[in-house]
Amino acid sequence: MAIRIEHRIGVAATTERVWEIIADLERWGEWNPLHPEASGRIAIGGTLDLVERLDGEPDRRAQVRVPDWTPETQLIWDDKRGFMARSRRYFELEPLGEGAGCVLANGEIFEGWRGEDWAAARRRKLRAAYEAVNEAIKARAES
After folding, report:
1. Which of 48, 85, 93, 136 is the Cys-Cys partner for 114 at CB 3.0 to 4.6 Å?
2. Average pLDDT by consecutive 10-residue portion of the chain (143 residues)?
């Protein structure tokens, strides 16, 4: 059974504006508290090099694979987190109508025996981290 942890937020900006922020990997360090370092290529089959910084945990470097993405709609990456642990991380954007802003969802689905246990033990930390990322994107997009 997989564990899904997600945070959603309304943003008073277009999906195009929010996507510009998400797609600019080189600037994630300016606003992203969970992944303060990011580089790579957003493309199907592309790889991203990330640093994950979760409260109370050592920094984790990871190279992840992008199985799917759609400009101004979604970015997904798969992370092999070790023996019997994997996750699928995502950003999803949903427009609310002409000039009405959008909904930003960001979260992760953890699978594998060890992945589920790891996520369950850190559920509050992870949810707080996804919320902080969303709040940072919102502030940047609305400024």
Report:
1. 85
2. 96 97 98 98 97 96 97 97 94 90 98 95 98 98 96
